[in-house]
Amino acid sequence: MQDFGENIQQAHNEKLGRHLVAAINIEPGDTLLEERPLLVAPHWECHQLKCAQCLQESYVMCRRCQVFPLCMDCGQHDDFECEFFASGAGKAICKDILVKNYGICGLLKLLLLLDNPETKGDCQGLVETPINLSDYRDGEGMWQEHEELVVRPLMESGLVAVLPAQQLTSDTLHAHCIRIDSNSFEVTARDGDTLKGVFVCGASLPHSCVPNTVVALDEQFNMKLYAAVCLQPGDIIYNSYTNPLMGTSQRQHQLRLSRRLECSCSRCLDPTEMGTHMSSMKCRECEGGFSVCEIEPNGRLGDWRCPDCGALLTAAEVHELQAEVGAALVEARGELQVYESLLTQYGPLLHPNHFMLLDIKQNIASILRAAALMNSMEQPCKKLLARRVELCSDLLPVCRAVVPGISKLYAIGLFEYLLALVELVELQFAESDLNKKEYAHLRTASLVAKEAMDLLRFEPENSAEGYLSDRIAMELERIESDLKKYGR
Ligand SMILES: [Zn+2]
Ligand SMILES: [Zn+2]
Ligand SMILES: [Zn+2]
Ligand SMILES: [Zn+2]
């Protein structure tokens, strides 16, 4: 049973079932929940053997059980899972089970945790979650992937027969796969590979596209959930399981696929998406108008209409255009000129903040960044760097609006903007061409660095965000010394 501390408590209602609410007044940054992962596992499609203990790449097998990979740095892995194959019930199972089907690793670990009397209780919150298999059976992709990579190999391995107490059928295995997927956060191993960290409590929070919390994950895969905004007693604790830089129809599509969820959060019910207009189209009839998606009282998305002139743009027309831009984005394959021409082609049809334009702009900014880093363009000229500053700054107001309060998304947006500014100013230094305007860039950079560090101050030191914060601190030091050198 999880101890929630004094900040939050459990509650229950019809719509959400069991959930968590604030127990007292909570300030942004206050910790709400700390949790160790129930298990960390590779993605189902992973074929790269990884150490059972630290999850880094490893081709050596544990000498004792000869089933789980174990790297040179790790002397042992979970005693129960090792013993199970070394001398226990699993002895009869082929030692190659993981070598041949590494994708089963996550589910195998869960089944062993359930078989171990000492850890069985830790899994209860997870395995008690009811799963309606008929929702998934005919769905896109996921069922088939589970069936081929996990369920069938496990059913054929003989494991089911040696775990009789669990009465495993292929349906129970499918349900476990879905539970693992919907209770995991992406975590990063020390070698940079992404993995699934399964968190019984932290990853089962109800979803809102406007979450009031931030999830922090350190290098040991420990999770800390902290408040993004002020919370009052009784406020429901939400997390977000979608990308905030997608438009409403895309977020909803993703939530339906991954979590069988119909979202009706404040952003999903707001045609302007919190004033950002991330899904709005330019009106085809009037000058300066924007068509916004009409949302029915039940939350269903309708057609697009211009509030200024009343002109209608059907949902089908909008979806067709979005599909066209989406396909063009796939085709662009990192070609700078192609992205720039997409911007010219579709800019006049979409709101400047439309999520697809933002996507194109992000692509351009990162190509310019990579090019500047690799110096592949002869002398990254001022014009290109200035273009990157402009693109990065375009993204900021949207990042700020869609994730209120403490926001990693906004912090990372600020960091990209900061780098763009600093690289531009450095070039100007080199050309000793620093006038008043460029000096102002340096001042802006200093403010941006401080704001980004302020947003990252609740992140653990030993996390990607912690290291990012150190990096920004170094930039800030340089900026401050430049300001002194050239400043008044
Ligand atoms: Zn290891
Ligand atoms: Zn072992
Ligand atoms: Zn929503
Ligand atoms: Zn209009």
UniProtKB/TrEMBL annotation:
CDD domains: SET_SMYD. Gene3D superfamilies: 1.10.220.160, 6.10.140.2220, SET domain (2.170.270.10). Coiled coil: none annotated. SUPFAM superfamilies: SET domain. This is SET domain-containing protein SmydA-8.
